[in-house]
Amino acid sequence: MEIDNLVTNLEKIGFSKLESQIYLALLEGGNRSAYQIAKKINISRPSIYNALEHMVMKGMVEVIPNSTALYIAEKPEVLIKKVQYEFDSNAKKVSEGLNEFKETRYEEHFANISGFEAILYKAKDIIANAQREVYLNSDFDLEYLTEDIRKLTDRGIRVVTFSFYDIGMTIKKVEFYSHMRKMREGHVPSRLMVVVDQTIVLVADASKNQEKWIGTVTNNPLMIKIMSEHIHNDIYLLKLREKYGKEIDDLFHIGTDYETRESEAEI
């Protein structure tokens, strides 16, 4: 590898350009004094002394006491282990600090998403970070999310899914609740709800009055609670219907326009 490339790569792992040049000069020529290093790379001795002092402190080079101090480069394999350890240690501290900073500065956010594909990508993104439970409500074949859901179940994440339709759920570890309605010819998907760990929710839909899918993703606690309740209540009603039959529906009707609209939609 050319020396310029080596200098560039050393800079990427925390060396300054001068430190890179010094280290390579020592690695190439063995023990050298500050004077010899300065002459080799054509840099003034005061700059070399300052850099060497810093490099000794960081474990990049070692100094051999003599009538004239000599410097030797740390072995590459040892040096890289030191750099890796230091990076991992600092990264851990930064990660802990950022998480603590984030937790103490909670902010609610709402983000609007437009288009079916964009909404699917956002769904994939939020469920990929699930740690405990994911709730889903959909009226379209979840083959779009099959691999994402399988990765969740493989990690032991609980996945609870509800749909009024037979949406082709074949992943055994998923808790699937459905009225198993057959999709009519020309069925147009119009609903997706995703709740992840009770911390974030995605709600999206399409209708005859909309040209394309529109969705919202938010960490708003009330929206998360409402969507979680919605999915759970659909499952509860399904269980009651399975036990007591369709007549159970009459017990819950209160005669609103919403109920009329939903009944007409099922015809």
Q: What count of helical segments does DSSP give?
A: 10
Elements, N to C (H/E): HHHHEEHEHEHEEEEEHHH
Can you summarize the main beta sheet? 7 strands, mixed
Indicate how many domains the architecture comprises: 2
Provide the CATH architecture of the largest domain: 2-Layer Sandwich
Structural class: alpha+beta
Helix residue percentage:
40-55%
Strand count: 9
**Global Rg:** 31 Å
Sheet-strand content, in percent, reads: 15-25%
Strand order of the largest sheet: 3-9-8-7-4-5-6
Question: Low-confidence stretches at least 5 residues in length (pLDDT < 50)?
Answer: none
CATH topology of the largest domain: Endonuclease, Chain A
Judging from the principal axes of the Cα atoms, what is the shape? rod-shaped
- CATH C-level of the largest domain: Alpha Beta
N→C terminal distance = 73 Å
According to CATH, the homologous superfamily of the largest domain is: Endonuclease Chain A
Mean pLDDT: 86
Pfam families: Regulator_TrmB, TrmB
Protein name: TrmB family transcriptional regulator
Organism: Clostridium cibarium
